Amino acid sequence: MAGKIIGILNQRRKVNVYREIADFKGVKRPVLTTGTFDGVHLGHKRIIQRLSELALLSGGESVVLTFHPHPRFILYPDDHSLKLLSTLNEKIDLLEKAGVQHLIIHPFSREFSRLSSMDFIRNIIVNQIGTKKLVIGYNHHFGRNREGTFEHLKEYGPQYGFEVEEISAQDVDQVEVSSTKIRKALLDGDIATATSYLGREYSLQGMVVKGKELGRTLGYPTANIHIGDAHKLIPLDGIYAVKVELEGHMHRGMMSIGMNPTVNGKERTIEVNILNFEKDIYNKMIKISFVKRIRDEAKFAGLEELKQQLHKDKLETIRIFESGLAHGDLNL
């Protein structure tokens, strides 16, 4: 039976997306979870797996309620420190891959933030969504001033006709997984920790734009990438071995994030040299997945010294891929 359930859960289906709670209607026995789900990391996936299991066992359908923009952008508009692990489109794709059947993306506003925990239970969970089972993560809070708790839900669940299940803390080597810890790892350049917590490689998506073409003169042409979402987290400056997805094909690459100090650069750039690749890809969308950080950004005495270092970086990138450090796609 367990094998049959796992087989069913592994069948990917297209998620139904609703842009506000009012659009969500007529789902059979909704099994609900709610949260921001930034990055859809291993802890989130454990919640969604249990959500899907309960939906299957109860003859219901899995529902995720999330919010856009991120609540902190509304509650603390002057605090620009928060960067996100996933854009909205990335989050939709990741939740679909995780097996969610219905995704409600409700606009978050100050008015919505003032909803009391009781009003959230009565008006949202019960009246609008019709929840039969509710799955929440460890230490989850909701409602005005985060006053709602698991104990609160357990108390009122029977009164309003739904069951509640809390997922315990998801640990990796005894360390609780959280989006905050993944953000810190990436900002520290700790790609290995971020990968282990995410259960996949962290990635960026953007459009290839015109740059100064310095790399081309050195024999290492780079694609300059523009990230359209200003809230997307960019890892620590430095040189990285990366996987490059372009028009459905995977390539090896080495990426530079930083200010290009050897040529006195004035702006932070994101550039990737795709190994053994020479096509014109301006204005193409590209996806970069981080495999390993190679070194810090450095200022060299001149272009010849920089070129010599780029050759070393390329050899190290090839070594990293041949050692099998990349998640999947090992035949790149």
Describe this structure in words.
The chain is α/β, with parallel strands linked by helices and 332 residues long. The protein is built from eleven helices and 14 strands. The protein has helices at residues 2-9, 42-58, 71-75, 88-97, 110-113, 117-128, 150-160, 179-187, 191-198, 214-217, 303-322; strands spanning 16-18, 30-34, 61-68, 102-107, 133-136, 163-166, 171-172, 175-176, 203-209, 223-226, 238-246, 249-258, 269-274, 285-295. It has a six-stranded parallel sheet, sandwiched between helices. The protein has a six-stranded antiparallel beta barrel with strand order 9-10-13-12-11-14. Strands 7-8 form a two-stranded antiparallel ribbon. The longest helix is centred in the last third of the chain and has 20 residues, at 303-322. The model has no long low-confidence stretch (mean pLDDT 92).
What is the overall number of helices? 11
Instruction: Estimate what percentage of residues fall within beta strands.
Output: 15-25%
Major beta-sheet overview: 6 strands, parallel
- Biggest sheet: strand arrangement: 1-4-3-2-5-6
CATH fold title of the largest domain: Rossmann fold
Detail the poorly predicted runs. Answer: none
- CATH architecture classification name of the largest domain: 3-Layer(aba) Sandwich
Radius of gyration: 22 Å
Tally of individual domains: 2
* Fraction of helical residues: 25-40%
- Encode the helix/strand succession as letters: HEEHEHHEHHEHEEEHHEHEEEEEH
Shape descriptor: elongated
In CATH, what is the class of the largest domain?
Alpha Beta
Instruction: Tell me the number of strands.
Output: 14
How far do the termini sit from each other?
37 Å
At the fourth level of CATH, the homologous superfamily of the largest domain is HUPs
- Computed structural class: alpha/beta
- Average pLDDT across residues? 92
